[in-house]
Each structure stands twice: as C-alpha cells, then as structure tokens.
Amino acid sequence: CVLCGRTDDCPEKYGEKRTYVEYNLTVHYYCLLMSSGIWQRGKEGEGVDGFLITDIRKEVNRAAKLKCNVCRKKGASIGCVAPKCKRSYHFPCGLQKECIFQFMEDFRSYCWEHRPVQKFLDKESRGTSQCTICLDLVEQFPAYTVLKSPCCKNAWFHRECLQCQALSAGIFFFRCTVCNNKDKFQEEMLRMGIHIPERDASWELEENAYQDLLQCYQHCDIKRCLCKKGRDYNQPDSKWEIKRCQCCGSRGTHLACSSMKSWEQNWECMECRSIFAKSGNYSKQKKRSLATSEKTDGTTCLLEEPSPKCPRPSPGSQRSFLLQCIMCQNNVSPCSHLALPAYSRVTMSLPPLMSNRNLSLRKKDLRKQRREVSNILKELKLQVNTKTTRLNINAGNIWNSALKGFRQRNFSPTNTIEIKLTNCKKRSKTHTSASSKHHFFQLLMLHLQNSSLFEGSSAKNLSLDFQALKENLYFEAGKMIAVSLVHGGPSPGFFSKTLFNCLVYGPENVKPALEDVADVDVAQTIQMIKYANSLSSLESTIYNCYDFLAAAGCLRPVTALCDKNMLVNDILIHHVIKRTKSPLESFRQGLKTLGVLEKMQMHPDAFSSILCHKPERLSAETICDLFTIRSSLDVNNAVEFWMGYLQDVESGQSVVTLEDILFFATGSLSIPPVGLDPEPTIKFLRRRCPVGNRLLNCLELPITETYELFKKKMEFTIRNTLRVERE
Question: What is the DSSP string of 305-340?
Fold first, then answer.
C-alpha cells in the first residue's frame, strides 16, 4: 500500500486492497478514507472512488515527510484531530495502538489519548455477561475492545464481533441484537469507530441464496390419480395443474383428479377437512341456487353453495381474517345453518332488453367513446422511446414469466417492448414482434381475469388475497394493464362498474350493489337481512349472524324494519370497499404507470368503454374502415371484390372469419384500444396470391379477372397460412 507500506490483504481490518496497474498504484481503502490531507474531489466513478490519482500522489508525498508515532517510520498520513495534538500514524499502526477512526462525516481520527469513550454510571453493576453476537463472556468494563449498547441496559459486545456484524449486515440491517433499535445504535457505534458500509446485507447479495425456500409441493395425493404421466406431473393452466391444500400446503391434487374446473376453486386435503369436521366448522350441504344473474351474452350464471368435495367460496374471502375470527369464536360459518325463505329467493336480472333503436344508439356511443380513448392512448404512447427492452415469455407459464420480465432491473414502461414468445410444449419460438407482443398481452389479460386477484363472474371486483398483497401483485397487475393499453395490447374489459368507479372517483364516493358480492355466504347473509318482512324476523336474522356482523363492524341498533337498508349498505361497503382497501390502493398505484390512471379520472366515460366492456365483434364495415387502400393501378373492380368478400365473410358464406383476415394481415385477433401501428393498408398488385406483411400491417391483394377467383385465392391462402402457423 502506498500509504501504509504494508502488503497485508485483510478487508475486515484495512478495507479492500486495490491495485491499479495503469497508475502503478496499490492502496488499502481505509488508508485512503482516513488520510488527513485528501478529499474526494472527483465524481463517483472517477479515479479511486472519487479520489483523483493526482491527489493520491500528492498525499503520498505529504505523508512521506511525517514520521509515525507508533512504528517510527515515515509515511504517516493520518493525524489526530484533537486540538494541539500532533500525533501522526499509519492506519494499521493506529489500530494496533487502539485509535478510533470514525467512518462518517469528515472521517475524523483520534489517537489513543484523545479517543472518545463511552460513559458509564457509577451505580451500574460490574461483572461479566454474554456478548449477544458470539455468546462468549464479556467483561462489563469500559475498554477499547468492549462496547455497550446505548439503547439496552445490559447489552455488551466485543468490538470485533460488532465490526464483523456491521460488515455483513450493512447500513440497512445493522441494529441492536437485543431491542432491534437502529438509529440510536448506529449513531453510537459510528462514534466509537465501527465501520458500517453503505450497501445491502451480504445475505441479500448472494445469488440464489433463498432458492430452496421457493420450492413448492408438487405431488398429487388423491387416492386414485387420473394423470397418465404420474403424480408429480404438473402442467400450469391446464387440468393437470397441481393445486395445493389451502390450509396446510403440504398435500396436492391435479385439478382433474378432484373434478375442479379452474384454479380459482379452493381445495382442502382429507387431513385438514377432518380437523374442520371435528371442530364443527365443516358441514355437508346440498347445492342450492341463491341468485341468478344474466351475463352480458345472455347466458345464466348460478351462485351455488360449495359441495363438500370441492368447496368454492370466492378466492379472496375463503379463510379470510374476518371469517377466521368468526369461526374460531363460534365454530360456525355466518348464517350457514339458516335456510333462505321462499319469499326471499330473488332473481337478480338485467333490465328488459333494449329496443333495436336503443341498442344501436348504445353501440354508436361506445364506438365514439372508443375513438376518444384511442386518441388519448396515442397521446400517452408518445412517452415510449426507441430504446428496446426484450422480455423472454413462456406461453405455458405466462404469469410468472411476465412478472419476472416486468420486475427485471432494466425494464422501463417507456422503453419499446419486444417479446420473444416461447411455447415449451412445441419448443417453438416466435420472433415477429408485433404479433407476439399482442399475443402476449392477450394471454396476460386472460390470466389476470381468471386469477385470484379478482372475484366475480363476468364483471369483476378486486379480491382480498393476503399472499398477493404481501408480494405486491396488485401493483404489478395494475402496471401490466397500464402498459398493455399504451403499448398496443388489448384492454381487460372485465372491470365491474363498482371497481371502475372506485379507481376513478375514490372508494369513499362509491355505493356497491349486491351483485358485487361474490362470496356465497356473505351474499346469503345480505339477502336474508334485505328481504326480512318483519321486525322480529330481522332481529332473529341479526341475532343468528351476530358474530359475523360484529367482526365486520356492522352492528347497529335496529328499531324499525327500514333500518335493514342501512345495515345492508354497511355490510356491502365493508365487504366490497373497506375489506379490499389495501389491494385497491396498490392496484391504483400500478395503474398510475405512464399516466393511465390520471387520464382515466379525466375521461371516465371513454375509459369505461374499454375497461368495463369487451370489444365488439368485428364487422365488415370495421375492417373496411381500418384498412387504407393505397395503389397506383386502376383497381375499381378489385376494390369491389374486396368489399364483396368482406360481406360474404360476415354473413358466414366463407370458411374464414373476419378475425382470421385481421390476424393474417396484422398478427392481431382484435383491434387494440390504442389502434394498430403502423396504420393498416391495402395494396392491389398483379400477383398470384395475397400476402400479409405483419411488420408493416400491409395486406397485399391480387388483381383477378373474376370475383370467384379472388375469393378462392383469399380463402386458400388465409386458411392454409393460419393452419401452418397453428401446427
């Protein structure tokens, strides 16, 4: 070392020993930090951590004139800062003589006579105690080698133990081992010469340090496993996906082996089920319809009670903290023993179908709003720069690979996103950026719709998933939706009106409805209160649900039958709004990405058209308006053939669909809210068959003599191209 003259390489004592061949320079990091005549005049990456090479050489020349008061050799670059003290020494010599070096502020140094000491009260007991780091005995006596905690009365440490712990824990995790105090403890230890590096803890920097903890139980324990590939076979997003017991997590089943239709269903192993049965918390009940609601497509959805084989409350509320409290106190589920009276079985249906005229006006209004939101998203897209971020996405495990990509260090929402989509089943890769990106966002939105982050049938609200909240998944989901909207992906289209209003106007300004309750037990409780026809029946219902209402904070004095309305409103606000307050706030923060939430709040009607409604089906008119015809040839007949062909496809007189034509030309199955970039065009050329240039969104069509030949070429090429791609 050019400053202390020693060859020792001991990072714990002298700091990292660094050699710079180009400057013919070797120096200990601590020797450099504590030298009295040098300052960091350069930038962080300049010279040696901000110390310029010229300044280091000047300091070496200055120290060469000073003799060390310990070893009597020249080169003593460190001096005591006490007034009138002229002692100088090398850093290793100062350690040997028990000097104090303060690694903070001005990096002061004190000699063995002027060093700071810890103050002890005379009445404090003397003796021995355990060092709480190494657990060896330490004398309770003020000395250089012994330090006392400033925040705990009887906490004593060896100086060496504290220094080792500080180097390992770093500034973020170094704290008192007894009371966990950080600020007061660090301040005192820095004053007494303990070096606390400004970096993360060593265990956090070790690659794959916690890999073993990430292993999940993956084995089907059902007595008769139906999977031909064995009990350990697990295929995500299929019927052979392994679902773990929601209570113990140490038993599993394939979805198909337990007749479960989706991952949203909760499952309990036989051991846990028997424990619940013994405690009275698990009872076999027949399925019965509670309420029906019309889906947007006209199909009917039944809210059913779960069978003992496959219990199915909503994923966010099953075994939630609220129900746990109730069950633990009373060993019953809310109102599980109550039968719903015949007069209170009410059908929740949509209003009568609109007339054709009203429906046409509604569609026209939606189209207008979607054009408005397209312009808004195009404005937001101006933030996206040309710098590219590549995401490697596994289509078979879309969520985990998307989460990994969005959380990688170099990911930025303002960068252009390039998707490398891999299908592990077929070992095939897609490199076409436009089509693979749209397909990725489409799969991602579909996964989010069916994930445990949301609950409900078609119009969904946020659920309460404590594990997802802990892992910040609600934020990531909001961020992914915002990025999808701006970068040309599809919109989710599954938000309920209540969820959308909470995001736009704030939860305190939203009044939820019974349709927003996905949990069967809670829905039943609300219905029994809502449709009570006398004060006595209302009081009886409240009495039977007393513990549930108390845990929800919804108990109120009931003096008249009309009080039930306020009680129902309280339960709805608790279950739909207050219970999911933390997920909602996290989700809102994610939607702020690229300024999407701000635009939603400024243009609520426009964004409601894409977030609360599925995109309308493609029509011949939509496709015709989407493509701009650019051709220098006389193509009047060809244009007529094209328009006629679109009409035939729409009316079902073709083997291909309008979605096939759009996918053939652009790689997208639907028109994203932000629109297609570049703008889709059509060229009529004298060629044998049509060509879809997805890079330019250009559809090159052949000029033919007859319409029949045009249609034949279109159908043959599109059908075979898509078939080959699927294979």
Answer: PPPSSS--S-TTTTT-HHHHHHHHHHSS-TTTTPPP
Looking at residue 48, its pLDDT comes to 85
pLDDT (tens digit, 9 = 90+) per residue, 250-267?
Answer: 889 988 888 776 655 678
Residues 77, 34: Cα–Cα separation, whole Å: 8
Residue 518 phi, psi (nearest 5): -95, -20
- Looking at domain 17-110, its CATH class is alpha beta
DSSP letter assigned to residue 494: -
Residues of the chain with CATH 3.90.1750.10: 367-513+581-612
Token pair of 371 as six digits: 């054009």
Q: Give the CATH fold of the 367-513+581-612 domain.
A: Hect, E3 ligase catalytic domain fold (3.90.1750)
Is residue 577 within 8 A of residue 356, CB to CB? The reply is no
Task: Return d(Cα 437, Cα 395) in angstroms, integer.
Answer: 12
Element (DSSP H or E) covering residue 1? none
Q: What is the pLDDT of residues 192-215, one digit of tens each?
A: 999 999 888 888 887 777 676 777
Q: Specify whether the CB–CB gap between 239 and 245 falls below 8 A.
A: no
Distance CA 193, CA 209 (A): 31
Residue in 290, 320, 315 with CA at minimum distance from that of residue 515: 290
Query: Which residue has 């994923």 as its token pair?
Result: 315
* The two three-digit tokens of residue 488, written as one number: 């040309």
Q: In degrees, to the nearest 5, what angle opens at C-alpha 113 toward C-alphas 109 and 118?
A: 80
How many CB atoms lie under 10 A from the CB of residue 142? 14
* 9, 28 Cβ separation under 8 angstroms: no
CA–CA gap between residue 574 and residue 570 (Å, rounded): 6
H or E element at residue 470: helix 466-470
SS3 234: coil
pTM, entire model: 0.52
CATH T-level topology, domain 620-726: Hect, E3 ligase catalytic fold (3.30.2410)
Q: How far is CA 593 from CA 437, 486, 600, 662, in A?
A: 19, 10, 12, 29
Give the span between the Cα atoms of 695 and 691, in whole angstroms.
12
CB 265 within 8 A of CB 310: yes
The answer to whether the beta carbons of residues 391 and 402 sit under 8 Å apart is yes
pLDDT score for 106: 86
Least confident of 40-54, 64-78, 449-463, 476-490: 40-54
* Helix 636-650 × helix 707-726 angle, to 10°: 60
Listed in order, the ranges of the chain carrying CATH 3.30.40.10 are 17-110
Residue pair 462/584 in contact (Cβ under 8 Å)? The answer is yes
Bridge partners of 495? 460
Could you say which DSSP state residue 480 is in? H
Pairing between strand 416-423 and 388-394?
parallel
SS3 at position 80 = coil
Q: How far is CA 615 from the centre of its chain?
A: 26
